[in-house]
Write a structure and sequence with these properties.
The complex is a heterodimer of chains A (226) and B (168). Chain A is an all-alpha fold and 226 residues long. Chain A has one domain (11-222). Chain A is 69% helix and 3% strand. Chain A has 6 helices and 2 strands; from the N terminus they run ββαααααα. In chain A, strands 1-2 form a two-stranded antiparallel sheet. In chain A, 38% of the residues are buried. The longest helix of chain B is centred in the middle third of the chain and has 133 residues, at 12-144. Chain B is rod-shaped. Chain B is an all-alpha fold and 168 residues long. Chain B starts with a helix and ends with a helix. Helix content of chain B is 93%, strand content 0%. Classes of the chains: A mainly alpha (226), B mainly alpha (168). At the A-B interface, strand 2, helix 1, helix 2, helix 3 and helix 4 of A face helix 2 of B.
Chain lengths: 226, 168
């Protein structure tokens, strides 16, 4: 890892290190929140302009979630799962900006395991807290299915989920970033383009996969019938 | 474990930054994107439902009114038919009456005319008879070569009329 990317940390304020990716993440957050604010500050029944874009994006995710987990849970988990998708998507696509990963303050958040781990852990806790909230102590019964001695395997299964979520996302994006940067170092003009086109595809797929798996985990934990 | 994590670039500071930032993002997007859009969806759904109900009501109303009008139309048609029938009957009746009147009038007129004719004929016959008698006396006078006196004349006429009357 040494010798790659901008110097860490980006800055230190009151003894707290601010890593480079935080600046990029703030930029992404600003874009998402600003566009949302633009699109929803004066909502009309017949949408136009930015409102159309925001409605299209939110409704798309919402309809997808409704199909997976039903309307009431889709409403409850839309903020978390929708934010997963939009943040990961923009984060992945931020890698297409020239100079990403070279200029201070510009680092693709999802190409860092620490960040993807934070997202994976969020899914892990939300999954199990939701399960306990919905079913109480009976929630733990599903660790004993289909037979009681499956308990250790079930526990490992649950623990592996956030790890696999984090590593899948991190691995894909980090790998892609590295390849694009390496190619750009050797031939910065046309050569990275095919790889960047591929990144457009995998960026969306990885954002979708992370959201889809998180939805599946949460749906499974809060399902009424087994 | 720690060594592996470090080798992969895992950093607790970054992890905490990411977690906090992401939770803030969730909160902000909920406020500025998800809530307003879902509210708008609900509102739109409600207004569509309302419109549909209203449309259905209007359709029912229209159907009801159409039925009413149809019933009224049928009633009016029946009424018209009845009136026409009545008028026809009345007309027929009047025709008969007028015809009967006319016939009666005509036969009366004919009768009157016939009576008149008979009377005239009677008168004519009487006049003719007198004339013939006079002529006859005149002729007789000529034959006798002298005038006949008024008394003779009268007597002869009476005799003659009696004779002619017998002839009749």
């Amino acid at each position: 890892m040494e010798g790659h990317g901008p110097k860490e940390p980006f800055a230190t304020v009151f003894g707290i290190d601010i890593p480079n990716f935080v600046i990029t993440m703030w930029a992404i957050m600003f874009i998402l929140v600003f566009v949302s604010w633009l699109g929803t500050r004066k909502m009309k029944k017949v949408p136009s302009g930015v409102q159309n874009v925001v409605e299209f994006a939110v409704e798309g995710i919402y309809n997808f979630l409704t199909g997976m987990m039903g309307e009431s849970r889709a409403r409850a988990y839309l903020p978390l799962l929708g934010s997963f998708f939009f943040f990961i998507l923009l984060s992945n696509y931020s890698g297409l900006i020239p100079g990403m990963g070279m200029i201070p303050g510009m680092k693709v958040p999802t190409s860092d395991l620490s960040i993807t781990a934070a997202l994976g852990i969020t899914t892990f806790f939300v999954t199990h807290i939701s399960g306990i909230q919905r079913k109480g102590i009976k929630y733990f019964a599903h660790f004993l299915t289909p037979v009681a001695w499956m308990l250790p395997i079930n526990i490992i299964d649950e623990l592996v989920r956030p790890v696999s979520l984090s590593f899948r996302l991190y691995g894909n994006i980090f790998g892609e970033e590295t390849v694009i940067n390496k190619i750009a170092e050797m031939a910065p003009l046309i050569a990275p383009l095919p790889m960047m086109a591929l990144a457009l595809l995998t960026g969306a797929i990885q954002a979708f996969v992370f959201t889809l798996l998180s939805t599946v985990y949460i749906t499974g934990a809060t399902e009424d019938h087994h | 474990m720690e060594a592996i994590a470090e080798a992969l670039g895992f950093d607790v500071n970054k992890f905490i930054w990411a977690l906090i930032n992401f939770l803030i993002l969730v909160f902000l997007l909920k406020k500025f994107a998800y809530k307003p859009v879902l509210n708008m969806l609900d509102e739109r759904k409600r207004s569509i439902e309302e419109s549909l109900t209203r449309a259905e009501k209007a359709r029912d109303e229209a159907e009801r009114m159409q039925k009413e009008y149809e019933a009224q139309l049928a009633q009016a048609r029946e009424e018209a038919q009845r009136i026409i029938e009545q008028a026809t009957k009345l007309g027929e009746q009047m025709k008969e009456e007028i015809l009967a009147n006319a016939q009666a009038e005509a036969s009366k007129a004919i009768q009157r005319a016939q009576e008149e004719i008979a009377r005239e004929r009677e008168k004519a016959v009487v006049a003719l008879r007198e004339e013939v008698a006079n002529l006859a006396v005149l002729a007789a006078g000529k034959v006798l070569g002298r005038a006949i006196s008024v008394e003779d004349h009268e007597k002869m006429i009476k005799e003659f009329i009696a004779e002619v009357g017998d002839l009749q």
